[in-house]
Structures are given as structure tokens and as C-alpha cells.
């Protein structure tokens, strides 16, 4: 069934195809991680729905790709105004679908708006003149790809969708968004509310089950896949996309190190490290997942860190004053639980926490493991939850050997009063983004990419636009090829 997009109802959710809302015979439901209650029905897109969306996207691309950069930016400004007019409703969706306390749900809406605002102001990539002489003019320009498939994660469903949707649209592509089935609501509603500003087929959304992602990666009408998620899934997407030689951008997992030097003010830095490690209950791809603190301040810093985290309120997202909400879904809850169990079985020392209880939802009290072995799971793998190892270091040489002993390379943090030393350490970390004297907070104007198995390509910033463009070099030979001309 297809209907024109009606006034917004924040308790009804649809797929959006060719500018219209579409239901499906089959539905599924997100789960509120704070209390495990079932949320609203969401239609499960079929292969027919995907074919319709691709066909609509291809048709819309013919005109959308020829609109001016300024016209697209004007539309982005209308979209961000609409989003912010529904800030409270969108924040409530994120609170319920993600388990984010309200202040952080609102922060996600504001950050998503920030992505749009940034792209509404940046200039288009300039056409470059490579050579221009009496014989030859060589120019290089950039053209949009076509239909882009955006496969989005559950930890930050709105902002991480926006980081794919907005540069995709701005560069002249049409976009089909697939939100995570764990958190479909905010992304579906954003696409729905944006239809009034866009020609049909320019921005579409399909919620689906486990079959939809593979169907998108294999569909010959989709020219690019942008994916954020796990390394294992990213590898499968790359293999599947290779069948049609799609462009791919993969933002994958990380096991980021946080380095604390001996010259810092412990009381200033401990709260920042706590946020870096436990923000969103550790469900952040660039979160500080391994803490390395210089041996001279190790005990003092650990005590300060514990005091900060102990002061936080942890539990159901809807309760007032909450700092950390639950882990988002049962699958991830069980993964995190496995790390707790592995640490307990191996006799590692819990400086904080140690119990993982169930108070009706997926809440997990944060834990800090004191100096586990370098080879332990909690050091070598990514929990993606509120449990981190903390280990001492003595020399930079041995520290960096341990920090870089991983197949991931997404992010990292360095805290050091000596800024020159901090930059020198940061440059030796094998990762795409390093923060100095701050917890990890990606910005829309800074290119974001992973090294090693943490990704292919990147997004954000002016450089991120090129992920949605093909280069075209034009060679103009200045010879007379008219009738009667001698070559």
C-alpha cells in the first residue's frame, strides 16, 4: 500500500519509496533497551520494494544530478530547519530506541543538525586545470555516482545516517537509507519529514530484515554502498559489492588506545578519560577501549577515574539524572556479558564493577579491569560496552609497540601537558583520527577514516565529499578538426 506522505505521526512508521509512504505485509519491532518493551511496528521491505526504490532513485538522479550546488544547499537548510522543529519528538525516539538518556538523545539530534549545517556552507570541489598550453588543455572534474545505498548502525542511528545522506545528496546522488533493524525509527522519520523538500526518489528509506543488506550490496542499480558497522560485516559487504564493482566506504570497528602522560593534572584529565571510555555506555566506535596510564601516576589516576565513574547514575534512560543508559540490544548485551565472564574466569582484577545484573533492561554497570595481560580478550578485542582495561606504561617505545599491536586503527587519544610531545606520540599511533587533550568527539568538518581493518575510505569534511563522486579527466587537444583542416 502506498500513500502520499501525510502529517508527521511519531507513533507510525513507514518505508519511503518514490516520495510516498509504503507499508508491508510483514512488520517487526524495535525493543526499548531500558525495559525490553516492544516499540512500534515497522514494515519489512521486500525485494520488490528495493527494486522500486532503485528504479525511482535512478530516474530521480537524471534531474537531481543536474541541479546546482546552491540549490541543493538551499534544500539542506530547509531540511535542518524541519529537523530542529521536531527536536523534542526526535530525541524521544532516540531515547526509546537506543536507550540514550534524554540529554544525550538531544545532543544526537543537535549533532545531526550540525552535519547538515556544515554541508550547507561548504563549496563544491573545484574543477582543476592540469595542463593548459598551445596544444592541450587537461581538466579534472567530479561527477556524482548515481544511486547510493547507506547501511547504518544502531549506536548513533540519526547522526551516522546523516553523515551518509547529506554528502550523498549534496554531491548530486540519490540515496536509499537502510537503518539498523534495532533502531529504525529516527532515520525513517527523518526521511519521511524531508520528502516535502525533495523530488520523489531523491531520498528514500527501507527498513528490512537480514536479507535487505545483501540485496542492496548485490543490486546492479546501486552504484555505491556506505556502511558503518562491524569488521566482519564490512568484509562481507566488500565481497558482495565486488560482484558489481560498487564503490564502497566502510567505517568499521576499532580498539582505540587512550594514553595518559605523567605530566597531566589527574583531576582535570580523569573526567575526560571517563567520558572517552564510557560515553553512550562504551557504544562508540572510537571510544577509548584501552587505557594506558604512566606508571608514575597510575594509582592516583585510577583512584580519580573510579571516583568520577562511581558518581554517575546508570540505568533506564527515561529516569531523571541518568548518565549511562543500557546497552542497546540483547545481542550486544550478551557480547559484553561474555567479556565480564572472561575477565572473572581468568582472575583479572576488577578495579570497578564485576557484576552484570538485569534490572528489567540491558543496563550494565561500568567496569575497569586493572592491568590485565596484553594477550587477554579485554585488551585485544573490542567489547563495545562499558568495560575497559587500564594498564601502566613506562617508556614511549614499549607503549607504542603495545598500542599498535592490533589489526584495527580507527582512533586514539593522548593526554599530555607537553603539547609537542603529545603531537609526536599521536603521529606514531597507527589510526585514522587522534584527539589530544580531549575525549573522542568526531566533527563534521574533519575527515574520518580507519587504518588497517577499521575501514576503507572515509567520510566527513570537504575531503569526504569525494567518496560520493567519480573523477573525470577531459583532454582537449587544440587542433583544427573541421572540414578541410590538415592534421
UniProtKB/TrEMBL annotation:
<protein>
    <recommendedName>
        <fullName>aldehyde dehydrogenase (NAD(+))</fullName>
        <ecNumber>1.2.1.3</ecNumber>
    </recommendedName>
</protein>
<dbReference type="InterPro" id="IPR029510">
    <property type="entry name" value="Ald_DH_CS_GLU"/>
</dbReference>
<dbReference type="Pfam" id="PF00171">
    <property type="entry name" value="Aldedh"/>
</dbReference>
<keyword id="KW-0560">Oxidoreductase</keyword>
<feature type="domain" description="Aldehyde dehydrogenase">
    <location>
        <begin position="28"/>
        <end position="473"/>
    </location>
</feature>
<comment type="similarity">
    <text>Belongs to the aldehyde dehydrogenase family.</text>
</comment>
<dbReference type="InterPro" id="IPR016161">
    <property type="entry name" value="Ald_DH/histidinol_DH"/>
</dbReference>
<dbReference type="InterPro" id="IPR044086">
    <property type="entry name" value="LUC3-like"/>
</dbReference>
<feature type="active site">
    <location>
        <position position="251"/>
    </location>
</feature>
<dbReference type="InterPro" id="IPR016162">
    <property type="entry name" value="Ald_DH_N"/>
</dbReference>
<dbReference type="GO" id="GO:0004029">
    <property type="term" value="F:aldehyde dehydrogenase (NAD+) activity"/>
</dbReference>
<dbReference type="InterPro" id="IPR016163">
    <property type="entry name" value="Ald_DH_C"/>
</dbReference>
<dbReference type="InterPro" id="IPR015590">
    <property type="entry name" value="Aldehyde_DH_dom"/>
</dbReference>
